[in-house]
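Notebook entry, cofactor series.
This is the third protein in the set we're modelling with a bound small molecule. For this one the ligand is S-adenosylmethionine. I'm keeping the input format identical across the series so the outputs can be compared line by line later. Sequence and SMILES below, as received.
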Amino acid sequence: MAKNRDPNKYPRQRTMFGTYEFPSCEEIINAYAKEFPNYIIPQGDTVFGFWMQTLADLEFLDLELQGLTEKYKIDAVNRVVNFKGDEEFIRLRVAHLEKVKGKTTLYTDFVDKFGDTNAYAFHNLYPYKGKFYPRVVRTLINAFKLNHNSFLLDPFNGCGTTTHEASLMGIKSVGIDVTPMGVILSELKNGLLFIEEKKLSFSPSELQDILKAIENKTWQHNDPLIYKLMLTVYFDTIDAFLRTSRYNKKGKIGLFIEKLNYIKDCYKKTMEIKDKYKLKFEPAKIIEGDVLELKNITEMKEKFDACITSPPYYFSIDYVGKDKIAYDYLGVDTKKVESKYLGMKNGNPKGNYRRLPPRVALYYEDLKESIKNIFWALKPGGKLAIIVGDSTVNGKKIPTTMMTKKFCEEIGFKFEKLIFNPLLGARNRAIRGESVIICHKPTKV
Ligand SMILES: C[S@@+](CC[C@H](N)C(=O)[O-])C[C@H]1O[C@@H](n2cnc3c(N)ncnc32)[C@H](O)[C@@H]1O
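Returned structure with ligand:
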């Protein structure tokens, strides 16, 4: 057919190689490969991390560069940044760039070493539900220009993401939580940064004895950190064992050793990064307590330069129930712990929340009270970032994000910014995304 074509109507087309021969597949690939650097290698020396995936990430990058640089320009199309500022400092702190002036950032080293953008250092020590992304905490610490003289607060510290990230960045922090298991985990993450490596070394037979002692409830150790570490590894082991015992060939002791080895590996990698960058970790102060009683700790009045926190999301996570194994073992009265949770007190709501179910109204009253206490604990000019999500209960969306923003403003905070961060994945989850609400306490109240 092609042979009979009218050449005037259908002029012969040259191929991309300037000939009339049709190129082979390899020739096409090779030709495009030569062009690739022009398209996919960023044209610059300060480049985005591959983990920057969403528009929220772009906003987070913008936010941290405001705190870290003197001047900057983001080129989102080419995934590069131009900036003026202290290169070394930015390389140690930034959470969204892979390279700064051609050199790998500390965050990239964490990601490469641990093979994950959030489970680095001891952040992944134990599966605490509803925890922060450490990268967001790092971003906010940068945005708020915190340094080694600053004090950071998280009054809903959970398993200690804020305090652990602050410690890694050399910033003093205080973490408060009402849940005993959260407190144990925060203390562990804190203590493991300062322990000697040899203290983590146990022979297989010693580990067998430890496991037996824990099971017989005779486990003791003169170092409270090792005592809690072994218990935590045990709780995690039992949980995994119950879920997998039918096909688990390692047995309890195998799992126990594997989980402890994971923590030892985290220790080794974290210390390698510490040595490489000559970091000075800062210990955090962890307190088991109720945010609604914060004012009882009088020395906390106007002590903090910033607060980065996330209150419990209304009815979405059973923080106490999911650690049943641990609480049964420790003999903790979970009903008592739960009664201190935001919105769990008895009685009728006092405020005007007529269209809301009373439980939600009680939760909002406590949330507002917590924000008042945070306001009290911040220095004038202090910064606040609250991370919240809107849960869906019986098909109805609970508008916590906008209520939180409203409470902050009513209490006296000056609203600055809201960034919505979608939680990608399952469609039917109760929480579809979370928002970071950023405010500050005015210098003159
Ligand atoms: C969304 S989680 C915070 C998780 C934390 N950002 C992390 O990364 O682990 C909310 C936390 O608030 C705590 N909480 C609930 N009511 C509290 C209260 N009255 N005082 C202090 N903490 C409370 C819960 O125990 C839970 O750990």
